[in-house]
Amino acid sequence: MNEFLARSLIRWRWAVIVLWAVIGAVAANRAPRVLEVLNVQGGTDQETETSRTEAMIRTRFARPASDLLAVTFAAPDPVDSGSARVMLDSMVAALGREPFITGLIYYRPGEDSLYELHEGRTTFRAAGDSALVSQDHRSTFIVLTLAAVPNSQHPGIIRSLRTVIHRTLAAAGPEGDRYEVLLTGRAPLDYDIRAISARDSKEAELRLLPLTMVVLVLAFGAFVSALLPLVVGFLAIWITLAVITVLADYTPMSIFVLNMTSMLGLGVGIDYSLLIVTRFREELNRGLRRREAARRTLSTAGAAVLTSGLTVVVGFAALLLTPLVETRSVGLGGLVVVSVAVLLSTTLLPSLLAVLGRQIDRPRWLARMLAWYHAPTVWEKWARSLGRHPRRALLVGGSTIAILSAPAFLIRIGLPARNWFPAQTEAGRAIEALQQMGAASVILPVRVVIEFPPGQAAVSATSLRGLRALSDSFRHDPRVDRVRSLVDLKRGTSILGYSLLYSDLPAARQEYGDFLDAYLSQDGRLALMDVILADSVSLPTSMDVSRRARELGTLDIKGLKGAKVSVGGYTASALDVQTVLLKVFPRLVVLILGVTGLMLAFAFRSVLVPIKAVIMNSLSVSATFGLIVLVFQYGLGAQFFGLAGPTSAIFVVIPVMVFCVVFGLSMDYEVFLLSRVKEAFDRTGDNDRATQDGLSATASTITSAALIMILVFGVFAFARVLVMQFLGFGLAAAVLLDATIIRMVLVPAIMHLAGRWNWWPGVRRAAPEGS
Question: The pTM is what?
Answer without folding.
Answer: 0.79
